[in-house]
Predict the 3D structure of the following.
Amino acid sequence: MKPIFPKWMNSLPTLLFIVVHTGAILVIGLLWYYATPKFYEVGYMPTQPSTGFNHQIHAGKLGMDCRYCHTNVEDSWHANVPPVQTCYGCHEEGKLGPDATATTEKVQFIRDAYETDTPIPWRNIHVVPDYATFPHNAHINAGVSCFSCHGPINNMPVVSQAESLSMGWCLDCHRNAEVNLVPKDKVTDLYWVQNQWFNTLDADGNLVPQSMADRVHNGMTPDALKATLMQNPPDNCSACHF
């Protein structure tokens, strides 16, 4: 009797198994790589009002301390955006001289906002999910430099997100926190941190911290620095999640 189905159909279950599992592995692999903050958030650079705020000029060329604008980072969980009055304090028409940048059209939007008592609608770049929080004051006072989270922001004409801010990224730091700790008096000294602390390049050309063995600050050994800065670190989920 002639078989109803051809013999080659016996291989269909095996082929179907291979196709389904290969497809599943491919989908998981694509999601693992692309559907992560490291891929779709790093480099995020929203369009800001007018020409934006040039950190390369303010924090870099002029050497302004981060705390001049972000005044609450040492006392508050939130790194506040400065009010327009802070900007106008420097960019008032004619204040910096006739040839200064303050008199150009680039900062006219600051004066307009000041005259109309309207906040400048800056767009937030570094955002953590609603179910998590990041206490700036705890990190700043523990010796975590702005550079560790925001990168070389003093070299950025337009700010972009430098790190993923993912849970895995946070855990990596907390598991080896001393690598990112700097002397407290250097937390906002971005050039010092970049040149003295994060002055080694990895295989991809990214700046990475020096080994702890190579670090000395004002005669303080790495172990002494770690003991001084890492006091009562959080050890449970409630530190970031409520």
